[in-house]
Amino acid sequence: MTDVSMTVNGEERTASVPPETTLLTVLRENFFLTGSKLGCDVGDCGACTVLVDGIPVNACLMLAGQAEGRDIVTIEGLANQDGMHPLQQAFENLASLQCGFCGPGVIISAKALLEENPDPSVDDIRDALSGNLCRCTGYTKMIEAVQDAARIMRGESADEAA
Amino acid sequence: MVMRAFDLVSAETADQAVALLAEHGSEAMILAGGTDMLVDLKHDKHRPAVVVDISRAGDLKGIEITDEGLRIGALVTHTEIMKSPIVQENFPAMVHAAHTIGAVQTRNLGTLGGNLVTCVPSMDSGPTLMALDAEVAVAGPDGRRRMTLDEFFVGPRKTTLKENELLVDILIPKKNVGKPVDFLKFGLRKGQALALVNAASSFWVDWDKNAFVEPRISLGAVAPTVIRVPEAEAYLDGREITPDATAEAARLAVEAAKPISDFRASAEYRRDLIAVLTRRTLENAYDLAKAKR
């Protein structure tokens, strides 16, 4: 067993796990943060996307030991007492998810994009979401929601035409 | 998927990693970005007793111009290549090539060194580097050795790297820093797609004669490794830059390649792609040369 400690959504968390445990498994099974999903388990689908030191990565492709001391943000870290994150609110408003399985990964990828680029083009959004597969809703409403959230986060109203 | 049990040790420097490899011998394997390695472990392709995590080895990071040329640490990620001002200024083709790999999340994890060591024939980082005569430095118990990528690549998923050795950095020789080079990939999607064919071309221009100087043509996904096309390079060297010359070079590239048919594309389709991508990379590199003049 190996001891790992990391900051998860602002809290110090520790766990004792076998060395071959992935970051995703620790998040889900030790910290009970089941928002990040296990999809393909090989880095194709993006359902496990989390931020590590602010950068979106596949939590299924990182060992828990490699996350030692790092700052992790999962979907559970976005909403606070004041309400949902603008991205979550926009996804709800536009019904951008049906089954929702890909949603946590998509929203984490979109959050990373908007932190780097507050005014992304449709192509920028498509590029940022290219590692997140959705098999039911499709991407059009997700892209619209990211645009809406970006407008809100820039201090504009969501329905202002771009 | 559950991985078989292994011990995880972390190396903070390249020398530490080499020492750990020496200590554990064939029982040990290196883990960097993990985008290939963890997938292989999950699929039970390797059974290491010890995994040496090098992801925190600072001396394997960094992109810099040295007296020898442009040095890229083996641990540099594809995203770091895309964001590097040095790479953007000297080799926009490398930025483009990095952008065609996987998707955001895998580019944030995956490393240039890992891409080269994994050595799949369709790797997108290979052709541009090979067209720039790039070398790799490998560290082992007896010190370091350098070799060109031609020498490094052996076959599908096979390099000359020995089990006690570590890829340390990639060097584009000084004489080629700023050499006009272009890279193109044809995949079935923009993200998460392997290349059906990829290609890179580079050359200097003798402006008095408007002729090719030191042309290099490199292709991926059309042979057991990324290859150069010496026949086409020899044909172009010193020849005037004309549409006929680039068309003949493209024909020679098709002749030299040995593409296979698989579920992604037929060999015939790949041969058509080789001709198109070779011609276009030559044309684009020429446009770049004119813009830089």
Helices and strands in order:
The complex is a heterodimer of chains A (162) and B (293).
Chain A: E1 2-8, E2 11-17, H1 23-30, E3 49-52, E4 55-58, E5 71-73, H2 86-93, H3 103-116, H4 122-128, H5 140-153
Parallel strand pairs in A: 1-5
Antiparallel strand pairs in A: 1-2, 3-4, 3-5
Chain B: E1 7-10, H1 14-24, E2 28-31, H2 37-42, E3 50-53, E4 63-65, E5 69-73, H3 78-83, H4 85-90, H5 92-99, H6 104-109, H7 112-118, H8 126-131, E6 135-140, E7 143-148, H9 149-152, E8 153-155, E9 158-159, E10 166-173, E11 181-186, E12 197-206, E13 211-220, E14 227-228, H10 230-236, H11 243-256, H12 267-292
Parallel strand pairs in B: 1-3, 2-3
Antiparallel strand pairs in B: 4-5, 5-10, 6-7, 6-10, 8-9, 11-12, 12-13, 13-14
Highlighted features:
heterodimer; A: 162 residues; alpha+beta; Ubiquitin-like (UB roll); DNA polymerase, domain 1; 2 domains; five-stranded mixed beta sheet; 5 strands; B: 293 residues; Uridine Diphospho-n-acetylenolpyruvylglucosamine Reductase, domain 2; Uridine Diphospho-n-acetylenolpyruvylglucosamine Reductase, domain 3; Enolase-like, domain 1; 3 domains; five-stranded antiparallel beta sheet; four-stranded antiparallel beta sheet; 12 helices; 14 strands; globular
Describe what you observe in this structure.
The complex is a heterodimer of chains A (162) and B (293). Chain A is α+β, with helices and mostly antiparallel strands. In chain A, 31% of the residues lie in helices and 15% in strands. Chain A has five helices and five strands. A five-stranded mixed β-sheet of chain A has the order 2-1-5-3-4, with helices on both faces. In chain A, a hairpin with a 2-residue loop joins strand 3 (49-52) and strand 4. Chain B is an alpha+beta fold. In chain B, the strands form four sheets. A five-stranded antiparallel β-sheet of chain B has the order 4-5-10-6-7. In chain B, helix 10 (230-236) packs antiparallel against helix 11. The radius of gyration of chain B is 19 Å and the shape is globular.
